[in-house]
Specification:
The complex is a heterodimer of chains A (416) and B (236).
Chain A lengths: L1 H15 L1 H39 L3 E6 L19 E2 H7 L5 E16 L2 E10 L2 H5 L4 E4 L4 H6 L3 E4 L1 H8 L8 E4 L2 E9 L14 E5 H8 L10 E2 L1 E6 L5 H15 L10 E5 H44 L1 H9 L4 H36 L13 H28 L2 H6 L2
Parallel strand pairs in A: 4-9, 6-8
Antiparallel strand pairs in A: 1-11, 1-12, 2-10, 3-4, 3-7, 3-11, 5-8, 6-9, 7-8
Helix pairs in contact in A: 1-11, 2-9, 2-11, 2-12, 9-11, 9-12, 11-12
Chain B lengths: L1 E12 L2 E13 L4 E6 L5 H8 L7 E6 L2 E2 L5 H10 L1 E4 L11 H11 L5 H11 L15 H13 L5 E5 L7 H16 L3 E5 L3 H4 L4 E6 L2 E7 L15
Parallel strand pairs in B: 3-8, 3-9, 6-7, 7-8
Antiparallel strand pairs in B: 1-2, 1-4, 4-5, 9-10
Helix pairs in contact in B: 3-4, 3-5, 4-5, 5-6
The chains are: A alpha+beta (416), B alpha/beta (236).
Chain lengths: 416, 236
């Protein structure tokens, strides 16, 4: 078979210029490697976000103050909006038919001290509904009750990680913890939940009654002077009633906040699915952007191949003339140079793929504070990478190969 | 074997037509050994290229081995170069990165032949280079390199071998060896046409064709040889 002879010729001529071939391949190695690493990291991020939201449940709504003038989710970012929600809003929302539980929640970071130990954690001020809305179960002791809320008791329920950091293997129940120079009594410890939103450990948390939080830890007032609530998590009876419940909540809050017909909401009701969609859009854009960066290096790699093939054709003008003189047809010459370009590209792509695979594996091993991005090189990516490599080889090889094939044998034999 | 009938080859240089060949008519019989001589620019290389199917004549008729070549397409011409013609060049034109035997195999690859290696080795043995088959051209002397080139020309057993100044890059001893080899091949019945500007080499052939300005000015058998049929060309 002629094709095997041609393959042999291509390998021999690439080996005859080892350094040059290696450098040309390097362009493809970096290009293919970059595309695959970046795409698989993007896919890993997306997986992480999707699974986080799925774990939180799809029948959850989140109500937050929002800046009516800011676009999309940016209006809900802290600082962009004014405190507009209150405990009374939460109370009113809990009476909507499709709502099973509400958990008005304020949060901040604090240092917790017990004896010689201390740890920094997020502290949530919430209501008993917190446990159900966010799906925590009690490992020992109890969660706080409406009575604790009413009395603004200085009690705290610790996440498993915080409890372990402060008390090790000792029983924390009944122990004292100092938060912002005030003593709190530990009344319960939560079951470990693992890693949650964007890698924040859901076990690095302390929960205290929201009234205590507002009165003794962090006080924030609405413009009308009421205690402000940062967000209200709303659990619904099922995911099917999301749209209906959203509308009910919006109508309720607009009425309560006395928002005129032509004005925008000063709050936003976001379903987990909606947030998931927003984040997916962002990560998709990120993945495409990363892929484009990789694609640019691929383009540079393919220009490198074309460049070196043009040099090679010029250098080997006499050889081409000789080959034609002894019976090579145009298509034989075309095939020879195309094969060389394709081989440069394919081998470079394969090495780049291996390199990317190892890198993706390495990235997946990195502990980013309790969570990892599982950057997976899927078979699909492999197939795409290999076909793209071959395609790039052929695309960047076709012009030099055609130039070689068109050479006039007599002039070629006289060259140089 | 080879019939050229009123062949012209015209190149356009700017606005002037240059006649590289201006009405060449000759016939060369099977088994002839012919030298083409002439000053540079006389058209001898062009004539060899036309005979070698590397160049198409502007007008005229060329019959090779009973086949009208003048109107064949590029692929057919490539086949004819591969099967019926063997080329030997002044500069050898061997690929330096591959061995002698791999060089000799090249025409077999394009001819899609079987048993390439054995046939290439046989061709190298025929030119006395069997033991050096696995050397690269750079490890061979000039004379040896030209022998490899001749083996490459021979490997498809073509009826005609065309040589363009085959001794031009060789010392006199190697030149004599190469001419002796050509004479040997001629004895075996291969038609040999060579270009040279050295008369002592031309005189070792049977027939000398002299060109000037694209025309044949003389076409004579070499004295002392009597086996040349009288196919004197019409010089116009």
């Amino acid at each position: 078979m002629k094709i095997f002879d041609f393959l042999g010729m291509a390998i021999r001529s690439l080996l005859a210029n080892k350094l040059r071939s290696a450098l040309t391949m390097l362009g493809m190695i970096i290009g293919v490697g970059a595309v695959i690493v970046l795409m698989s990291v993007g896919a890993g991020l997306q997986n992480m976000i999707t699974s986080t939201f799925e774990e939180l449940g799809t029948n959850l709504l989140n109500v937050q103050p929002t800046n009516p003038d800011a676009p999309g989710i940016f209006g809900t970012l802290y600082g962009a909006s004014q405190a507009s929600l209150t405990m009374n809003d939460a109370e009113a929302m809990s009476r909507i038919r499709s709502v099973t539980v509400v958990a008005p929640t304020n949060e901040n970071f604090v240092k917790l001290i017990a004896g010689n130990e201390d740890t920094t954690s997020v502290i949530h001020g919430s209501t008993p509904g917190y446990q159900q809305a966010f799906g925590y179960t009690i490992a020992s002791g109890q969660f706080f009750t409406e009575r604790h809320i009413a009395r603004k008791d200085t009690v705290v329920v610790l996440g498993s990680k915080v409890a372990e950091d402060l008390f090790g293997s000792n029983d924390p129940i009944g122990q004292k913890v100092k938060i912002k120079d005030k003593w709190f009594t530990v009344i319960g410890v939560l079951e470990p939940k693992g890693v949650g939103f964007f890698g924040f450990s859901l076990d690095e948390v302390a929960v205290t009654p929201i009234t205590t939080y507002q009165a003794r830890l962090f006080s924030q007032k609405t413009p009308s002077g009421e205690d402000a609530v940062q967000s209200i998590a709303v659990q619904l009876a099922s995911a099917e009633v999301i749209d209906e419940a959203k509308e009910d909540i919006e109508n309720l809050l607009r009425k309560r906040h006395r928002i005129a017909e032509d004005k925008d909401d000063d709050f936003s009701v976001v379903s987990m699915e909606q947030m998931l969609g927003e984040f997916e859009t962002i990560t998709l854009a990120l993945t495409v952007f990363l892929g484009l960066i990789g694609a640019i290096s691929l383009l540079v790699g393919s220009i490198g191949i074309m460049n070196i093939m043009l040099v090679s054709v010029t250098e080997r003008t006499r050889e081409i003339g000789l080959r034609k003189a002894i019976g090579a047809k145009r298509r034989d010459i075309l095939m020879q140079f195309l094969l060389e370009a394709a081989m440069l590209s394919l081998v470079g792509g394969a090495i780049g793929l291996t390199f990317a695979w190892v890198t993706a594996w390495g990235i997946s091993q990195i502990d980013l504070g309790g969570f990892t991005i599982s950057a997976v090189v899927s078979p699909f990516i492999v197939i795409v990478a290999i076909s793209v490599s071959v395609f790039i080889g052929l695309a960047s090889g076709i012009y030099p190969a055609m130039r070689a094939a068109r050479l006039n044998p007599i002039e070629a034999l006289r060259y140089g | 074997m080879i019939e050229l009938e009123n062949i012209t080859k015209v190149y356009r240089m700017g606005k002037v037509d240059v006649f590289a060949l201006n009405g060449i008519s000759i016939s060369i019989n099977k088994g002839d050994m012919v030298a083409i001589v002439g000053a540079s620019g006389s058209g001898k290389s062009t004539m060899l290229h036309v005979i070698g199917c590397l160049d198409k004549p502007t007008s005229g008729e060329y019959i090779l081995d009973g086949q009208d070549i003048s109107r064949l397409n590029d692929n057919k011409l490539a086949d004819i170069r591969n099967k019926k013609l063997g080329f030997v060049f002044q500069e050898f034109n061997l690929l330096t990165r591959i061995t002698a035997v791999a060089n000799v195999e090249l025409p077999l690859i394009y001819g899609n032949s079987r048993q390439k290696h054995q046939r290439a080795i046989a061709a190298l043995e025929r030119v006395g280079l069997g033991p050096r088959a696995n050397h690269k051209p750079t490890e061979l002397s000039g004379g040896e390199q030209q022998r490899v080139a001749i083996a490459r020309a021979l490997v498809n057993n073509p009826p005609v071998i065309l040589a363009d100044e085959p001794t031009g890059n060789l010392d006199s001893a190697s030149s004599n060896d190469i001419i002796a080899l050509f004479r040997e091949l001629h004895q075996e019945g291969i038609t040999i046409i060579l270009i040279t500007h050295e008369m002592d080499i031309a005189e070792q052939t049977q027939r000398i064709i002299r060109l000037l300005d694209g025309k044949i000015i003389s076409d004579e058998p070499v004295s002392g040889k009597n086996d040349v049929s009288s196919n004197s060309g019409d010089s116009k």
